[in-house]
Design a protein that fits this description.
The protein has helices at about 5-10, 20-35, 65-75, 90-95, 130-140, 170-180, 215-225, 235-255, 265-285, 290-300, 305-315, 320-335, 340-350, 355-365, 390-400; strands at about 35-40, 45, 50-55, 80-85, 100, 105-110, 110-115, 145-150, 155-160, 165-170, 190-195, 230, 235, 285-290, 340, 370-375, 380-385. It is an alpha/beta fold. It is globular and about 75 Å long.
């Protein structure tokens, strides 16, 4: 069973954005795999598929249902600790380090866990070091043995190979109040997948029953995934393709992105982590094929821009839309008839502008009477209004440069 597709198809009548369900499903798969699988990064370190996922969007966009579904599925599998509700970081560490006996089931001896909360700011009680600790716990490849934490009351906690998957949601205002600025550059944000959406998948009053996820069926699929253990493999031709992509990305693309979060420098690890989750989620396999890698690149690439946006929301100094407007203008100016399809524009500017930015820019330019929108058969195109004198003047200046 393609477990990922099963969740997406069974939730496609709900309001929560499709990507929220997609990434919540990846987080659930990650959580039940724990540290039982890995990919050998050429002997340098073993990469495990634990991920931190943050669903980011305005209140009312339905971040809660996908998170709740993931939590319920992992709870049904019952092979790892599910840490929900409001906790101090010390309480989280104690729970991860406690040998837990369970009636009729094997005890939980390891320090693996699924941290889950519908709102990020309500998941961890304020603590100056909490985000630093969560940053440290993410790096499973370096926590290969015992991880120690000395508590304020002279007692210490010991975690054995801690492996954490974290799924939460937030909006801009709450995130800004919660996240210390010191965790933005090279810290926690550089390790998070920020899944930013601002529109519901569709409108559904829930007055009439539609298809819904068969949670027991999906949990059975997750139970099979939880049994998978060992090293992921990759054929030589896939390694060559991944190496070619990374060489080009790191040498030609990354230097143009001006990233100070550390997200871009981790792109290779991110793509492989996600590819591992996709491989087991779609085929129950530890063999990474080219389709897994391509899907990993496809879904991780668009997260570069939202990561920068949440950083700017904390810094309160985001002037980037002005620059992004100029990028859209420049792109349209170079197109035949000053017109471009929305999809092609996003494809070409996708590492600088995401779909939310483009919506805001387009609406602003329409209000300024310098842009029109054409829609044909579901395809949306943008066209500069060259009948407007201000656009003509801008084009003259643009061409003279």
């Amino acid at each position: 069973m393609d477990l990922i597709e099963e969740v997406l198809e069974s939730t496609n009548t709900f309001e929560a954005p499709k990507r929220f369900y997609y990434w919540s499903t990846l987080a659930a798969i990650s959580a039940v795999m724990k540290d039982h699988v890995w990919f050998d990064m050429a002997g340098n370190y073993l990469l495990h598929p634990n991920i931190y996922v943050l669903l980011y969007g305005p209140s009312g966009i339905r971040k809660g249902p996908p998170i709740a579904l993931a939590q319920e599925l992992v709870t049904l599998v019952d092979n790892t600790r599910v840490i929900d509700g409001r906790s101090s970081i010390e309480a989280v560490i104690k729970e991860l380090g406690t040998f837990t006996t369970r009636e009729g089931k094997a005890p939980l001896k390891d320090s693996c866990g699924f941290m889950v909360a519908s709102e990020l700011s309500s998941s961890i009680v304020g603590n100056n070091s909490a985000m630093d600790i969560m940053t440290n716990l993410y790096d499973r490849q370096y926590n290969t043995n015992e991880w120690k934490y000395r508590l304020k009351v002279s007692e210490s906690a010991r975690l054995l190979k801690p492996t954490i998957t974290w799924l939460s949601g937030t909006n801009e205002a709450l995130f800004r109040d919660f996240m210390p600025e010191k965790n933005l550059n090279g810290g926690l944000i550089g390790r998070m997948f920020v899944i930013s959406e601002h529109q519901k998948q569709q409108t559904n009053s829930l007055m009439f029953r539609t298809k819904a996820p068969d949670k027991n069926k999906i949990a059975e699929g997750l139970l099979e995934i939880a049994k998978i253990k060992g090293e992921f493999t990759m054929e030589h031709d896939v390694r060559l393709a991944l190496d070619g992509w990374y060489q080009k990305f790191d040498k030609e693309v990354a230097p143009t992105l001006n990233d100070d979060t550390g997200f871009v420098s981790r792109m290779l690890d991110f793509v492989i982590k996600v590819a591992m989750i996709i491989a087991v989620g779609r085929r129950g396999s530890r063999v990474l094929i080219i389709d897994d890698i391509l899907e990993g690149i496809k879904v991780v690439n668009p997260l570069i821009v939202p990561t920068k946006k949440v950083v700017n929301s904390v810094k309160r100094t985001d002037n980037s839309l002005i620059t992004k407007r100029a990028q859209v203008l420049t792109y349209l100016s170079a197109q035949p008839e000053y017109k471009a399809e929305r999809g092609k524009l996003l494809q070409n500017l996708g590492l600088q502008i995401d779909h939310e930015d483009l919506d805001k820019i387009a609406q602003f330019m329409i209000q300024m009477n310098v842009l029109t929108i054409d829609s044909h058969g579901g395809s949306v195109s943008y066209r500069l209004r060259v009948d407007r004198p201000e656009v003509v003047d801008w084009l003259k200046n643009y061409r003279s440069k």
